[in-house]
Amino acid sequence: MGVLHMVAPKPFDGIVPRALPGEARSYTYASGVAELAIAGMLAAPPTRRLGGVAAAALFVAVFPANVQMAWDARNADRARRAIAFGRLPLQGQLIAQALRVARGED
């Protein structure tokens, strides 16, 4: 997904909360770079636990974008609403898994 943020940023720009200062594209690129860096950390055994902490932090940081996506989809078709609202509880599961990695449990 980090690469996708760089090569096809427009969909990601659309879910950046409008209340954030600055250009949406800056947040899209920054989150893409963060995702790529964290993937590298998770892949390398010496930095895996730190990568788990970083992943949990990133999942918390991007949660407002998921809320924005759900808000924007509130009047959309059923499938789009299901995807947008389904992402919200999934974020908690991703955070929990990242914390398990951080503790060395996975």
TrEMBL record:
Alphabetical UniProt keywords: Membrane, Transmembrane, Transmembrane helix
Keyword Membrane: yes
Transmembrane segments: 50-71
PANTHER family in the cross-refs: DOXX FAMILY MEMBRANE PROTEIN, MEMBRANE PROTEIN-RELATED
Protein name as it appears in the record: DoxX family protein
Organism: Brachybacterium endophyticum
